[in-house]
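Q: Predict the bound structure with PRP.
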Amino acid sequence: MQQLTVALAKGRLADEAVNLLEQCGVRCAPLRENTRKLVLGDADNKYRFIFVKPADVPTYIERGAADLGVVGKDTLLEESKDIYEMLDLKFGACRMCVAGFREQRARVTHNKLRVASKYVRIARDYYAAKGVDVDIVKLTGSVELGPIIGLADVIVDIVESGKTLEANGLAVLEEICKLSARVAVNKVSLKTRKDEIMPLIEKMRQITEGRCL
Ligand code: PRP
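A: Predicted complex:
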């Protein structure tokens, strides 16, 4: 039988995702080896794991290059792909927020609110729903610099501990939504490989359902 391909987001969610798979009975020792390999199998050769940038996980799943994957809700919202979000895994809890200086500066010189973010779609949708016309500045990291340097008035970004904001003299101004890790599945795989995918998701559900965010 062909292995199921599972895409895992590299970075902050990866270790917890591997821990959860192990709790589900997947023998993950090969995934813990210090290697630069991007495709790894489990010890029973039932799965093929690929480690990809978080923003690419939904793309692999949508195109069927991965049958399922573990990725943050932030990425699912931002990438907005045609895939099924199956389960909240209740780890990687954080919030999508608008942040900036407590007293906004610099607005007087600009007629539109300038919003710096990696999450352009989330920011655009949030302000559109409020009926606020904004100028969105796309950045790829260190977004907190936006208000500090005067590139933007506020940022839309993930807040986990709040330490990055605090260290840079910024604060949460509005909460957009709560975030956590999710399992997402390719639509065709869910039909054609249901008997392999659903038992794994069911185990994940049993393990995570008692957890609080
Ligand atoms: C994220 C986010 C914030 C920080 C928030 O960045 O963009 O900068 O984490 O975490 P905290 O509230 O616990 O301080 P990430 O570490 O992913 O790096 P990046 O700036 O390169 O996106």
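A: Residues 16 and 122 are 25 Å apart (CA to CA).
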